[in-house]
Amino acid sequence: MEEINQNSQTSLDFNTEKFEPKNEIEIQQIIKFCYKKNLPIEIVGNKTKINIGKKLQCAKTLDMSKFSGIIDYKPEELYITVKAGTPINIIQEELKKNKQHLAFEPVNFSKIFKKNSNEGTVGGTLSCNFSGSRRFKVGSARDHILGFKGFNGKGEKIKSGGTVVKNVTGYDLSKLITGSFGTLLTISELTLKVLPLESEIKTIIVSGLALEHAMGIMGSAISSSNDPSGAVYYPGNLRNNFVFNDLTHPGSITAIRVEGTKLSTEQRINNLIKELVLENKKLTILDSNQSEIFWEDTRSLKAFSINDRNLLRAVVPPSETVNLINRLKTFHPNYFLDWGGSLIWLELDYLSNQKIDQIRERILDANGYLTVIKSPESLKSSSEIFTIDPIKFKISQNIKKSFDPKRIFNPGKMYTGI
Amino acid sequence: MSSLKMPKVDRQTLKNKSKIVDDISAFTKKVNILSESEELKPYETDGLAAYKQTPMLVVLPESTNEVSKILSYCNKNKIKVVPRGAGTGLAGSALPLADCILLGLGKFNKIKEIDYNNRCVVAQPGVTNLSITHAVQDKGFYYAPDPSSQMACSIGGNVAENSGGVHSLKYGTTTNNILGVEAVLMDGTITRIGGKVFDAPGYDLLGLITGSEGLLCVITEVTVKILKKPDTAKAILLGFPSIEDAGNSVMEIISNGIIPAGMEIMDKVLLEATNNFSKAGYPLEAEAMLIVELDGTKSEVEELIKKVAEICKQNKCTSVKISKSDEERSKFWSGRKAAFPACGEMAPDYYCVDGTIPRSKLAKVLREITKLSKKYKLPVANAFHAGDGNLHPIIMFDANDKISLEKTEKFGEDILKLCVKYGGVLSGEHGIGIEKRELMCEMFNNNDIQQQISIKNSLDPSSLLNPGKVYPILRKCAEEGRLHIHGRDKSKFSDIPRF
Predict the structure, then answer these.
(1) Contact A401/B196, CB-based, under 8 Å?
(2) Of B185, B202, B228, which closes a domain?
(3) Residues 244-273, chain A: which have Cβ within 8 Å of B?
(4) Which one of A47, B67, B271, B345 is separated from B264 by 20 to 30 angstroms, measured CA to CA?
(5) Which of A80, A130, A169 to mutate to test the interface with B (most CBs of B within 10 A)?
(6) Which CATH number belongs to the domain containing residue B390 in this structure?
(7) Cβ contacts (< 8 Å) between A201 and chain B: which residues?
(8) CB–CB of A315 and B195 under 8 A?
(9) DSSP three-state, residue B57
């Protein structure tokens, strides 16, 4: 990794609107320049998630996508250190060579926003912290970051964490920067925990269940000793998004995934069928290949990628899901459930500020939270994208100030005033 | 107190003691305020018993509102506050200050809700770690992080120190197993962070607070995730002719895609000491022993146990013993859990070091520890959470011999420097507290430390909440030279298992 020498010569053109730094020296110089001149910077990677959050109008763009590459990968130590601009798929390909992966299955928004399959960068993925179906088993992106290096809003290089999983050495800033949408720090380097890929994946699909019944089955599966690694529910109207040779039954899809050795997955599938009393239900068992496609389609929100509708993400305690879905019916959303029913993806035709507020209110009543993922450009500046209360807003404002006193990093991206 | 430098004592606060008692009795029952020296004595230290300091007052509030009023009052009157859970921490994070109010959360001892539908338990911070598992085990659930002091340590303290245990590689530490907290800031503000959902929106304040050693807020409620107990768990004891062979086996097990629930290595010194103590049936002819625990479905466990045994045989393992029952599995662990008292039999005092290293560096680091042991002429026994790289060398010494104590301190410090040198960290699960405060400069430069301090300042501008802990106050990290930290001896509560 390059050592930073503040006196080093640079070929940077500071008049440009878009910076594409290739090394840490350039990143630091750009930030120091913007700090000195009070110039707000929009930090971007591959822009797959740029539409999430409030629309920014910044004097400068810091495009990190050229700051890319694997710095250190130690399969036997279960970690990989990468530059922030490295695409997620490049990392996953490298890990796959050693039968490993990033187990948190980052949500792939590229089909939703860009209509292609180029995934975002690792820096963007961590900055947004949207994690996939394995959440209840292995955690989200924030549970897989071991350490980072980056630059605060004054251009000072800081680091936190390390390469080991057990670490109580100062505040865990790795967690704090994860999900901060680039408002605290420009990440330059990340160390992530990697895990072995399981040799077999099997998926039980129960067809034709009503929501309430499906929630019961997913809850029982997760609360069993069979260690499932995914539980999703697609209502009947989304059934046609999933075409598999083995899936012949019509109606809604309740899918439960188990991963492990061949013997273990077979035993657990049998246990689940017995314990959840599924013998007489319309059952399909997807093999590893079909399972991989099914869960990849879930991770990339395939069911909602064909239309160009609005997209909301709600998270509630699973016990509240059925009631909330019933209360949201008046807005006629399409929806599907992930995380065993705790994560609700909502697709709506028409959205207004008032509608967002009404939906948020119902979600807050259910002790959950709402994130607006995709909404009309006209609403971007006026509607609240995330959920926050006044006390946490104040705390967040103070924390923002401690990293970025002049508010030059993605100002207002998450909340007005932060 | 020994030569440890702590924040300047505020004489004015001490002078006002009786007024402060009167004022605080407006917020909580009088019986909850301890001010006489014999009442204060039990609170003068935590698990790092070498350091003692009687606090000005001890206050034992009973509700969140009381905590809020007390903190708000202290904030206005610039009175320092040191929060304390069960006081079992080994790094001195709950060491009182002479002019502080020690805020004991012991009366927050109730489990408020068991919610099987949402797979979580809502507990007050003074509830012990183990009693959460006890509360849900009849339905087959448990709380995963299992610090060895789990029968005594509190869940609030676990959040403050991000406690781990032997199962961290597979199940994570506290930070990966909690969903929410209710917390009170130094200005008295009460806030709820997270809840019964994953990944609450906004900045990950839950992640920031966990492991912040009581510097950012006082925890008044914790919501933890509970898991269903695996069907089967089995342990396997493996003897090796050298530490290197045991270390290589660990690396190969992981490279083969196996993530065991627990993996522990013990060296010959500890093996003999613990076996004599607990008759665990360890292979005494071996130079090192590895305990591997696997859990999951029956067939999976059996399959993986075989694979682990094969890998170890290829790495020269000389003996293999698989547990045939849960009782036998517990027996396998009993020796490991008795590491402290067993070392206590061998020397008047012992001191347990806590650092983490990359797994692959185990043999190298242990070789250097052996060299240091010869250099300092102090025996050392080594226990190692091999799965997650957490090293616990136990140095044996005599605390009555001043030179022996000083040598022990220096030895411990050298081991932690080794951990950092080989790419590890200063603490895996005990925290920094006062114990490793000045060593932070081994890992972080001034920028890193200043960024952390500025977060502290943003939430507690007058630095009244647990000041003098975690961050070096003796010097800036950029400066040259090292300062000596004095005064360690064996931990308090030596009857609590530690590993």
Answers:
(1) no
(2) B228
(3) 260-261, 263-264, 267-268, 271
(4) B345
(5) A169
(6) 3.30.70.2740
(7) none
(8) no
(9) strand
Whole-angstrom Cα distance, residue A417 to residue B294?
A: 50
8 Å CB contact of B229 and A225: yes
Same-domain status, B236 and B273: yes
Q: How much of chain B is in helix, strand and coil states, percent to nearest 5?
A: 35, 20, 45
Q: Are residues A276 and A396 in the same domain?
A: no
Chain A residues whose CB is inside 8 A of the B440 CB are 169-170
Domain that holds residue A342: 308-380
> Domain holding A60: CATH number?
3.30.465.10
**How close B58 comes to chain A (CA, Å)?**
27
Q: What is the pLDDT of residues B392-438, one digit of tens each?
A: 999 999 888 888 888 998 999 999 999 999 999 999 999 999 999 99
Boundary (domain end) residue, out of A275, A299, A323: A299
Whether residues B207 and A178 touch (CB distance < 8 A) is answered with: yes
Which one, of B423, B363, B255, lies nearest residue A167 by Cα? B423
In this complex, do B432 and A168 lie within 8 Å of one another by their Cβ atoms?
yes
Find which of B141, B212, B425, B463 to mutate to test the A interface (most A CBs within 10 Å of its CB).
Answer: B425
Query: Which residues are CB-contacts of B143 (< 8 A; sequence separation ≥ 6)?
Result: B121, B129, B132, B133, B136, B177, B224, B225, B226, B227
Does one domain contain both B319 and B366? Answer: no
Helix, coil or strand: residue B334: helix
Which domain CATH number covers B52? 3.30.43.10
Give residue B67's domain range: 11-104
- Among B180, B200, B228, the domain boundary falls at B228
Chain A hits for B249, Cβ within 8 Å: none
Sequence-separated (6 or more) residues with CB below 8 Å from residue A81: A70, A71, A72, A73, A163, A189, A190, A191, A192
* A173 in the same domain as A88: yes
Number of domains in chain A: 3
Residues 226-245 of A with CB under 8 A from B: 226-227
Tell me the chain A residues in contact with residue B360 when contact means C-beta distances shorter than 8 Å: 74, 76-77
Distances (CA, A) of A62 to A56, A147, A257: 13, 22, 40
Q: Strands A310-315, A343-348: parallel, antiparallel or unpaired by DSSP?
A: antiparallel
Residue B492: exposure state from Cβ atoms within 10 A (0-12, 13-18, ≥19): middle
State whether A130 and A28 are in the same domain: yes
The answer to whether the Cα torsion of A226, B178, B182, B122 is positive or negative is positive
ipTM value greater than 0.90 = yes
At residue B479, the pLDDT reads 41
Q: For position B86, what pLDDT does the model report?
A: 96
Distance (Å) from the alpha carbon of A248 to chain B's nearest alpha carbon: 30
Assigned domain for B60 exists: yes
Contact A225 B140 (CB under 8 A): yes
Number of domains forming the structure of chain B: 4
Please state the pTM of the whole predicted model. Answer: 0.95
Percentage with pLDDT > 70 across chain A: 97
Contact flag A164-B356 (C-beta cutoff 8 Å): yes
